[in-house]
Write a structure and sequence with these properties.
Blueprint: E1 3-11, E2 16-22, E3 27-33, H1 42-57, E4 70-78, H2 84-92, E5 99-104, H3 105-113, E6 119-124, E7 128-134, E8 137-142, H4 154-169, H5 177-185, H6 190-199, H7 202-206, H8 209-217, H9 221-243, E9 254-257, H10 261-264, H11 270-273, H12 283-300
Parallel strand pairs: 1-4, 4-5, 6-9
Antiparallel strand pairs: 1-2, 2-3, 6-7, 7-8
Helix pairs in contact: 3-12, 4-5, 4-8, 4-9, 8-9
């Protein structure tokens, strides 16, 4: 009789993390590979996921090709699911999985953070998205993409630093250690800086976010101002999630995710900070919860 293998995929904009378990929930292995943003590339996403799954299964000497002895049940939380055409293209591809469930990376992260219970998350990474699950209802705030949204994230911080730097270069604003460091990042080559700024994507702008963070920690005025603006944008995501709750009498616990989150947290409003809780698990565990629930429902149908 074929053995059931459960796989959770956390497919983010910067990396793909996979956790594989047996039917009893015992860890078989974990894998890591490149980004899984279906909005940018469905082909690259599938390649990264397969490589990460193979790495996760390797310690148990299991191959995805062995469908005679194993049934593979896979839950995925992927970046870019809000783009319908990309989502449909991704799920239409042939695959070796007995069960296959795909949701957004934010949805999977929220399920993992609260181990399937009601709660919310705010992801502050390259971009920004708020997500909550309450009584089975999922709600999303922000996360519509860069540069038109994702205010407060790493790409936004980088873009704002670039704006300040151009304004300093043509004397529209004062000099600061931050803008000098940004210009130094491009070797003080204005032509290169301009060309880069006109073609850079969100990931490239986010590479400048550490400059803002470092200068804010040194209490440099321009950087602190940007961090406060970023925190205000995150506060607004929290307020919007609260407005969309079913039960307005209680506040759902909220967990922060993303590489920028620890640096933004001290600047957040007290109303949001008092509801913050540490996450219990990551998005790959949330994806596992999702696919286990689907298999259980099917088995009991």
């Amino acid at each position: 009789m074929a053995q059931d293998i459960f796989i959770g995929v956390d497919g983010g904009a910067t990396k793909s993390k996979v956790r594989a378990e047996d039917s009893a929930g015992n860890l078989l292995g974990q894998g890591l590979d490149g980004p899984s943003n279906i909005r940018l590339s469905v082909d690259a996403t599938w390649q990264a996921i397969y490589q990460a799954i193979e790495e996760a299964l390797k310690p148990a000497n299991i191959s995805l090709n062995d469908r005679e002895n194993f049934r593979f049940h896979v839950g995925m939380g992927l970046a870019g699911c809000e783009v319908k055409e990309a989502y449909q293209d991704f799920i239409s591809r042939p695959h070796p999985f007995t069960t296959f469930k795909v949701v957004s990376d934010a949805h999977a992260a929220c399920l993992g953070a609260h181990k399937g219970r009601d709660g919310s998350i705010i992801v502050v990474g390259t971009g920004v998205v708020g997500f909550q699950v309450e009584e089975g209802k999922a709600t999303k705030v922000s996360g519509w993409g860069f540069p038109h949204d994702d205010l407060g994230g790493g790409a936004w911080l980088g873009l704002e630093a670039v704006r300040l730097t151009f304004q300093w270069l043509d004397h529209r604003t004062e000099k600061s250690p931050l803008v000098e460091d940004v210009f130094d990042f491009f070797n003080k080559d204005l032509e290169h800086f301009v060309a880069w700024a006109n073609r850079a994507n969100s990931s490239e702008f986010a590479r400048l976010a550490p400059l803002v963070i470092n200068h804010s920690q040194q209490e440099e005025v321009a950087a602190v101002r940007l961090m406060k603006k970023a925190a205000h944008a995150i506060d607004r995501v929290g307020v919007a999630l609260g407005k969309m709750q079913i039960d307005k009498e209680k506040s759902l616990p909220c967990s922060l995710f993303g590489g920028i989150a620890p640096f933004i947290e001290p600047w957040l409003a007290e109303d949001l900070r008092e509801h913050l809780v540490p996450r219990e698990a990551d998005a790959n565990v949330g994806a596992l919860l999702l696919v286990r629930e689907q298999v259980a429902c099917r088995d009991h149908a």
